Amino acid sequence: MSNAAIAVDRRRVTWTPFLFLAPALAVTTAIVVYPVIQTIWLSFSNYVIYAPDDQRFVGLANFRTMLGDEVFWISLWHSAIWIVGVVSLQFLLGLATALLLNQSFWWRGLARALVVIPWALPSVIIGLMWTWMYDFNTGVINDALIRLGLLSGPVAWLARPDTALYAIMLALIWQGFPFFAVTILSGLQTVPAELYEAAEVDGATRWQKLTKVTLPSIADVIATALLLRTIWVANSLDVILVTTGGGPGYATHTLPLYAFLRAYSGMEFGYGAALALVLTVILFAAVFIYVRRASGEAAR
Amino acid sequence: MRRRDLLKGACALGAAPLANSLLARPALAADTTVRWWYHFDNPQNSPAELVARFESQNPGIKVQAEPIPWGGGNDYQTRLFAALVAGNGPDCAMVRLSWAARFQQMKALEPLDTALAAWPGRADISDDIWKINAGPDGKRYYLPLQYVVVYLYYRADLVEAAGLKPPTGFEEFRNVAKALTKDGISGYGMRGGAGGFDHWGPFALGGGASFEKGGMLTEKALAANRRFVDLARQDKVVPASAPTDSFRQIVDAFKAGRTAMTIHHVGSAKEIVDALGDKVSAVPVPRAPDGKGWTYFGDESNAVFAASKVKEAAFRWISFLSTGENNADLNKLTGQLPVASSARANWTGHPKRFVDASSASLPIAGSLPDHPKTPDFIARVWPANMQRALLGEISSDDMMKAIEQLYHG
After folding, report:
1. How far does B379 lie from chain A, in Å, by closest CA?
2. Which residue from A75, A195, A230, B120 has the fewest beta carbons nearer than 10 Å?
3. B282 — phi, psi (to 5°)?
4. Is residue B13 scored above 90 in pLDDT?
5. What residues contact residue A242 under an 8 Å CB cut-off, 6+ apart?
6. What pTM was computed for the model?
7. CA distance B289 to B14
8. Considering only CB atoms, which chain B residues are within 8 Å of A246?
9. Does B20 have pLDDT greater than 70?
10. How many CA atoms lie within 13 A of A166 on its CB side?
């Protein structure tokens, strides 16, 4: 082959991956990159949706306002409780479920199918379902606890600032634990049986087998699941919106919910975008770790 | 056959329907489709019969009726405003007076003055209703469709058994609520959640507060709000869930016999009567000691949007809905009261005592201010601050300051 022919062939090879990627890149640019840039731009403006003619560039004014906004700090703190509480408990429940479902029992197939149901339900259904379960007058939770003698009278779970956030967190933990269960279960099935046999020969206890064999073997799966779930939970606002709308007062306000309310109730898209941007920056750390992990795994 | 010939053939085949559709454009133009957004309290009710009647009377016009979730008003208005901004709004929709100022700023509405002048049904709607529905700039953008007036539901059997009378004033209301709070029953089913401003209004606005500058902070206004908050904080005549209770919760608790009084409109009369029969009756909301009062006039109109390309057809549809028998049939679906006088004359859609309570409430009925901040007051500022005041996180005076700040900075 002549040198010229080799050069042409190289050029073709260099461009081919980009051509294949082009449609995906175009779609990503249209539905991710463009809205992100628009959000950044909006956060530097005073855009109010019903007064588009008054829009002007305000620099960092929205971010300065945020520093003095009591509701922003309340929402930020609730977001921290929300993310840590929901993700950690979903993980523990998911891990326990996965370990159970990895055992042999005659209805294991059915159990594996049933456990996915909460994950498959739409969030709005979850929100409505738990709202009525928690209902002060007619809720099944109050009824059951009173019948069991654990309560002397009904509790307004969603109307008390000391219980409302945790009550919604419980609903979300229930909804999301199947994700961990299924993901960890798939990881468990890749652990070689020989490792357990060797541990058995060495006299390892059940706990030692879990901590020295199982968990290290599926560490990558757990880390990826935790990162993904952290991002999803941090952004989640639908269940809160349906159950309490952020109330009572600001008791169930989280950052994405507050950004949503300012944008869609106050129609203050400038300030709403600034709030959303702060959440994005905080989440960027998690995204960064995830991308590093993903690219690391791809390189292996 | 060569590839070029094959392509030519394919192009010819593809071009034929395209050419046909272009040639057929005048015929298609006659088949106008009007997109109408609506919401009914009972989502199982459908306007299909009305649509079919309209389409048979107006050949060439199709109505695409799209039900939009109400969500205490927040979902509906958010979707409507977002759709209008995105350029994908309907041609016409059910709208509320409290959104008019925002629509006005967006220049989103089509003035209806000319069309209304030629509409024969105009005289069948009373002047009072036209007056309330006038646009801020003197033009008419809204065509009234239905209305409700908020009043007080009370358990007539419990009130009578206690040797009391239905309350007409604030102090009487408080005394009746206290007397009926016993045996697991709360005297008053307060609505502190979404849409609850219509419980707060009779006490705060009826007691002297107003949306004018400084109107929330007068001594009279602050005292009126304290009185309302104290029903929960001090008198404890409301359920513990009151801070977040919304429409469904207050109505269900009243139907289940957990509360003895609550505030709502004729829209919930049917299901309440189905549950409680003659045990329930209604009177206007209580008035202030000086005889003044306020209750919410729940308006519902239709409007045509300026961006619509089928404005004339859209007006024909919305005027059809506000005309006589059609207006009556629509209100049987929505559970509210017809605006057409001819439809109201023989109205049997609700038991008479609730229609009477609605009519008796009209002298003190009013709407919220036609101001761009009003939707935010309803959806965010009022619920958050009301709930905080009910829970003791802020004082009732601080709540009034927050409302004052929203409107006047």
Report:
1. 6
2. B120
3. -150, 150
4. no
5. A123, A124, A126, A127, A128, A131
6. 0.78
7. 78
8. 384
9. no
10. 6
- Which range among A20-24, A233-237, B16-20, B208-212 shows the weakest confidence by mean pLDDT? B16-20
Asked whether the predicted pLDDT for residue B15 surpasses 60, the reply is no
Residue A135 touches partner B, C-beta closer than 8 Å: yes
pLDDT at B41: 77
Compute how many other C-beta atoms are within 10 angstroms of the C-beta atom of residue A154. Answer: 22
Indicate yes or no: CB of B241 within 8 angstroms of CB of A136.
Answer: yes
pLDDT in tens, B146-193: 988 999 999 999 999 999 999 999 999 999 999 999 988 999 999 999
- Topology adopted by domain B151-296+365-408: D-Maltodextrin-Binding Protein; domain 2 (3.40.190)
Whether B86 has its CB under 8 Å from any CB of chain A: the answer is: no
Phi, psi of A2 (to 5 degrees): -75, 165
From chain B, the residues in CB contact with A155 under 8 A are 240
Q: Could you tell me if B392 lies within 8 Å of chain A, comparing CB atoms? A: no
CA B149 to chain centre: 10
**ipTM of the assembly?**
0.77
Set out the domains of chain A in order of their start, with CATH numbers: 64-299 (1.10.3720.10)
The whole-number pLDDT of residue B24 equals 36
Write out chain A in H/E/C secondary structure: CCHHHHHHHHHHHHHHHHHHHHHHHHHHHHHHHHHHHHHHHHHCECCECCCHHHCCECCCHHHHHHHCCHHHHHHHHHHHHHHHHHHHHHHHHHHHHHHHHCCCCCCHHHHHHHCCHHHHCCHHHHHHHHHHHCCCCCCHHHHHHHHCCCCCCCCCCCCCCCCHHHHHHHHHHHHHHHHHHHHHHHHHCCCCHHHHHHHHHCCCCHHHHHHHHHHHHCHHHHHHHHHHHHHHHHHCCHHHHHHCCCCCCCCCCCHHHHHHHHHHCCCEHHHHHHHHHHHHHHHHHHHHHHHHHHHHHHHC
DSSP assigned state of B387: H
- Judge whether A87 and A229 are in contact, CB under 8 Å: yes
Cβ of residue B393 closer than 8 Å to a chain A Cβ = yes
Q: Which CATH number fits domain B31-147+297-363: 1.10.630.10, 3.40.1440.60, 3.40.190.10, 3.90.550.10?
A: 3.40.190.10
The overall average pLDDT reported for chain A is 89
Q: Write the pLDDT tens digit of every residue in B267-304.
A: 889 899 999 999 999 999 999 999 999 999 888 999 99
Inter-chain touch A159–B241, beta carbons under 8 Å:
yes
Task: Please tell me the distance from the alpha carbon of residue A226 to that of residue A176, in angstroms, as a whole number.
Answer: 12
Q: How far is A148 from chain B (nearest CA, A)?
A: 19
d(CA B125, CA B393): 46
Q: What would the pLDDT profile of A98-152 be if each residue is shown by its tens digit?
A: 999 988 888 888 888 888 899 989 988 999 999 999 998 888 999 999 999 999 8
